[in-house]
Amino acid sequence: MSENDRGQDEGVKRYAKRWTFWLIGVVTLILVVLTAMGLTASWWWPGQVAEYLRPHTAAVLAVTALVSFVCKRWGWAGLCVGVLFVNMATLALLAPETARVLGQSDIRVMHLNLDRNNDQVQLMIDAILNPADGRQADILCLQEFTSDWDNSLKQHLKDYEWIESIPRDDSRGVAMLYRQGSPLSVTGSQVLQWLPSETDRPTLAVDFVVNQDTSRRLTLLSLHTKRPSSPSKSREQQREFEAAASWCVDHLAMINMTKDLLVIGDFNATPWALNYRRFVEDAGLGHVGSVLRSPATYPSRWTRPLRVPIDLAAVSPGVATERCFAGPYTGSDHRPLIVDILVYYPELSYPN
Fold first, then answer.
1. Model pLDDT for residues 76-88, shown as the tens digit of each residue
2. More exposed terminus of the chain, fewer Cβ within 10 Å: N or C?
3. Non-local CB neighbours of 17 within 8 Å, separated by 6+ positions
4. Which of 326, 291, 278, 274 lies closest to 132 in space, CA to CA?
5. Angle value at C-alpha 233, between 228 and 238, nearest 5 degrees
6. What stretches of the chain show up as alpha helix (H) in DSSP?
7. How many angstroms separate the CA atoms of 294 and 286, rounded?
8. Could you report the per-residue pLDDT of 182-198, keeping only the tens digit for each?
9. pTM score, whole prediction
10. How far is CA 348 from the centre of its chain?
């Protein structure tokens, strides 16, 4: 190789090295900013958005730290490790109490955000009637339930009884069904309205008895909160969570009512989000699933590591879970959330 060629090769290497160092610096600074923003979630709404991405931020920080070590950029590597520690410590220390797990269940609940713009009816029907493990849901909780979905589903779901259906041609429609032949009997239902002066989103609460055993009673609350995409919507979501927590406390404290509670739906919040953590703590509930392994449901088309869990479930102490997982792609922007539970009433409670 001539001297000229060696000089060109060294120039290319220096150029690539310079751009690698520059890229490491830029990525590290972006991740530092996202981490700092996430710490402001209690008083600044963009911080809530950054908080959604905390596990993703931690994963990219780990890769960036490794690359920095390989490139011997010790300063950037140390900064990445320090910020990674902040993210992991925040996820570990601020995680909500989780529900107890048993190796059995007798009720399956499926939450479906249908997506009012979704026209993939057959995909949705297949997800409900032909699940991969062959076990159909005993209860269906439907959100973004429109008049078109009302007509389509009533033609196909012949084995399900409709408890309540409130179709809306926006994102506020809801419905709840239970499967004929399931171990459930419906004993009552309510249409609740959180903050009626600010939102017109109905919330369904349905009471069940399991296997005709009046000592095994379950209330299911289908909750759908605002997306915190602006300061006003963030405050409204917080008030919705506060109203829901207050209702849960009152419901579980009713005299002579041995009921347990499952709250499920599109919360528009991750398990590590501030508003959700406060809701779980104030309501005395346990989050279903581990925080970092909660079923990632949104956006549904993205691969698993890039999705975030914003369709969530929480239960009172008398409800144990066997499995909690995301269903298949249904054409909606959310994947289904499926929870297998067992109502068993232990003399236990979650720390508040």
1. 889 999 999 999 9
2. N
3. 71
4. 326
5. 75
6. 3-38, 45-52, 54-70, 74-93, 121-129, 147-156, 231-252, 274-283
7. 13
8. 999 999 999 988 655 45
9. 0.89
10. 25
